[in-house]
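TICKET: design request
STATUS: open
ATTACHED STRUCTURE:
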């Protein structure tokens, strides 16, 4: 299957998309808990605009693909929108409203929604019917791999950023009482208000600046998905799965049987 260029490009897109997506899912709740003082549960619920954008554009783009038989435009536009959404997250600060943040997350999710399912569709349409299961599971594997690498890489960026900014912003007398690790800060968000105002400001500001670095690192990965989407070859959609009795099973037979989908 790796000799199939559509499978290779789709796998790479899925890998990079997961790296960007988990950067938002993992680190935006940190921002909400420390900058806004919300609970862990509420910080998770405030990610709903990301999921809403992903769901809405997955459905809309899927229906448009079924109607037109064309799919390349959606991974291309979606990856560009995803890069814009990740760039918008670099503007988050301690005073950003929930409405503004929700718009940023919706844009990011909308871009992902146009990419994720259409990359799977492109692969399933390009491989032999006998390889549908293998190709689909391989795409899911590369997405999971991207999530692992993304969480690890962005975690290193976050921890290093926190070490740097805490050292510069935190008052010397409090430096020994606040530390950072891959699991977060040693000061839980619910106890932040009990600290002196100067320490509260230093912790919040260092977190915001560290997250800016995380999102700036994620932006180039999102931009690479735009380049990859350019090279995603578009072929005519099959009208059937090809698994019915008497259906052609060879690539040549599939090409002959392929017809644009009309929904």
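STATUS: resolved
RESOLUTION: sequence designed for all positions
ATTACHED SEQUENCE:
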């Amino acid at each position: 299957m790796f000799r199939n260029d559509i499978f290779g490009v789709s796998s790479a897109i899925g890998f990079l998309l997961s790296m960007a997506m988990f950067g938002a899912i993992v680190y935006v709740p940190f921002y909400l808990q420390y900058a806004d003082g919300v609970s862990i549960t509420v910080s998770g619920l405030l990610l709903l605009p990301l999921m809403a954008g992903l769901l809405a554009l997955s459905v809309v783009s899927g229906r448009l693909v079924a109607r037109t038989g064309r799919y390349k435009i959606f991974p291309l536009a979606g990856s560009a929108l995803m890069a814009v959404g990740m760039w918008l997250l670099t503007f988050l600060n301690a005073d950003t409203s929930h409405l503004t943040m929700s718009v940023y997350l919706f844009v990011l999710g909308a871009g992902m929604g146009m990419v994720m399912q259409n990359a799977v569709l492109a692969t399933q349409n390009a491989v032999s019917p006998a390889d549908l299961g293998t190709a689909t599971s391989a795409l899911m594997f590369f997405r999971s791999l991207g999530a692992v690498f993304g969480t690890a890489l962005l975690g290193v960026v976050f921890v290093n950023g926190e070490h740097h900014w805490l050292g510069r912003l935190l008052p010397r007398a409090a430096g020994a009482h606040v530390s950072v690790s891959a699991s977060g800060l040693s000061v839980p968000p619910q106890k932040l208000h009990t600290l002196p105002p100067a320490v509260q400001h230093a912790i919040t500001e260092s977190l915001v600046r560290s997250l800016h670095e995380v999102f700036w690192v994620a932006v180039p990965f999102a931009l690479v998905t735009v380049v990859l989407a350019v090279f995603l070859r578009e072929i005519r959609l099959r009208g059937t799965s090809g698994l019915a009795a008497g259906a052609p099973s060879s690539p040549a037979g599939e090409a002959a049987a392929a017809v644009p989908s009309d929904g």
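CLOSING REMARK: DSSP finds eight helices and two strands in the chain. The two ends are 27 Å apart (CA to CA).
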